[in-house]
Amino acid sequence: MRSCCTFQALGLEMRMCSVVLGGLLLNTQSAITITATSARNQHRLNMSFTVEERGNPNTLSYRLFFKNADGKYVSPFHDIPMYADESQNIFHLVVEVPRWTNSKMEIATKDPLNPIKQDVKKGNLRYVANVFPHKGYIWNYGAIPQTWEDPGHKDGDTGCCGDNDPIDVCEIGTKVCSRGEVIKVKVLGVLAMIDEGETDWKVMAINVEDPEAKDLNDIGDIQRLRPGYLEATVDWFRRYKVPDGKPENQFAFNGEFKDKDFAIETIKSTHGFWKALISEKTNAGGLNCKNTCVSAGDSPFYCSTDEAKAVVGGTSPYGTEDHIPCSVDKWFYYEKK
Ligand SMILES: [Mg+2]
C-alpha cells in the first residue's frame, strides 16, 4: 500500500512537471502527450480525492470521475464539501482547466456523478480561443463544490438570473494545477460577469499552499502584488468568445472587482441555492443530483456505492488519446472597442 501511494505521488509529480513544461513552451499538445504516455488512468491528486479517467482523452468519450479517500465514487458537484476550513473561510476548488490550456473542460452537471468532460458545441469539442496576448486560460480555472447559481433567482446587484452552474473560480497561484485536482483556496474578491443575460460570478482566489498566499488577503493585494492581472482577467472574459462569433461579455459594477467579504457572501448565497437544489426544494431542471455522501435524510438523490460503480462501468474504458488539433494554438487579434 505504501509503495503504491509513493508511486502514485511520483506519477503526479511527473504529470504536473509535464504540464508546467507545456505552459512555458506554450505547447499544450506535447504536454498532454507526455501525460498520456504514463498509460495510467488513475491519479492521486491530494490526500483526500483521486480521479479516474474513462474513455479516450481529447475525444467525446473522455470522462474524469472522482473518488474519496475510502475509494468510493463521489460527485465533485455535490459530495466534495464546499469548505476546507469554515472557521478560516478556506474553500475547496475543483480544478477543471489547468492554466495555459484551451480545452473547455467542466463538471458535467447533467450527467450522473458529474464527471469532468469537455464542453461540446455543434458536435465538436470546445476549445477557448487565444485572444492576443492570452494563451489558453490565464489562471487555474474551476468551480467551488456544493454551490449553484440558480437560474430561477434574479440577483439584486446584477439584475440577472444565475447561469445554472456551480460558482466559477480563477486561481492565481504560481503552480499549474492538474485537471481534477481538489485544492484549498483563500478567496480574494469577485467579478460579476454578465454572459448573454446570465449572472456568471468569477471568484478570484489563491491556493493556500502558494508561497505568497500569506501576503494575498484581499482584492487590493492582487492589484499590488500581481500588477496587470485583474485588468488581464477582465479583458480575457470580455473578449474570449468574440472569435466564435459571440458579442463581448458585459460586467456589473462597471467591470470593477468586489472585495473578499462581498465574494464570500456571494459564495455563501450560492451554497444556499445548492442546499435547496439537493434537498429537492428547488426544481433541479435537467441537473443530475445523484450523490453518494450527502446524508440520505438531506437528499432524495442519494445513490448507493453499487449504483455509483454501475454509472462509471457504463462509460467507455480508458483508451488511447487523440491529438489536439493544431488550430487550437492559433492567435486572434482584433481592435478593442
Ligand atoms: Mg459560471
UniProtKB/TrEMBL annotation:
Its EC number is 3.6.1.1. Keywords: Hydrolase, Magnesium, Metal-binding, Signal. InterPro entries: Pyrophosphatase, Pyrophosphatase_sf. It is an enzyme of class 3 (hydrolase). One of its GO terms (molecular function) is inorganic diphosphate phosphatase activity. Its cofactor is Mg(2+). Residues 1-22 form the signal peptide. One of its GO terms (cellular component) is cytoplasm. Belongs to the PPase family. This is inorganic diphosphatase. It comes from Salmo salar (Atlantic salmon).
